[in-house]
Specification:
Blueprint (H helix, E strand, L loop, with lengths): L5 E7 L3 E4 L5 E6 L9 E4 L5 E4 L4 E5 L7 H6 L2 E8 L2 E12 L8 E4 L2 E5 L2 H8 L12
Parallel strand pairs: 1-6, 3-7, 4-8
Antiparallel strand pairs: 1-10, 2-3, 4-5, 5-6, 7-8, 9-10
Amino acid sequence: METQYYTLIEKQDFFEIIENKFGELAIFIDARDGSPVNPVLEFDGKKTALLKRDERLAVRLDNIDEETKGPLAEAEFVLIVELNGKMVERTYGVPVENVEEIEFKGRQTRADEIVKAKSKEDVMKSFGAVRCWSCGGKQ
């Protein structure tokens, strides 16, 4: 059982969005470790999208090209292509959710990464706590 106590949001400095003759979009990003689980792409309709790859990892896509905003906002699904150098590591389809605003919660640990600690309740639930004792202090 893998227990994650932190959520990472990584900033993708360079990415490409392409459109085919059918109007379908694909987004090329750097490969990440592990396979995505129930991924979704949130788009604020402006310049930022957030690929929620799984419960632990999200990839932030900033400065989306002005011409891309319309097609991306209208898309129901996009194809994510993860590259390791020039080689394709994996591809998968994700639904697009249009949101008012994307909120980045967490603490910046370096230029491309934001770490968000989970709440006490989240950790206790992940841990599978069935009972809790408060200890210490005066009796």
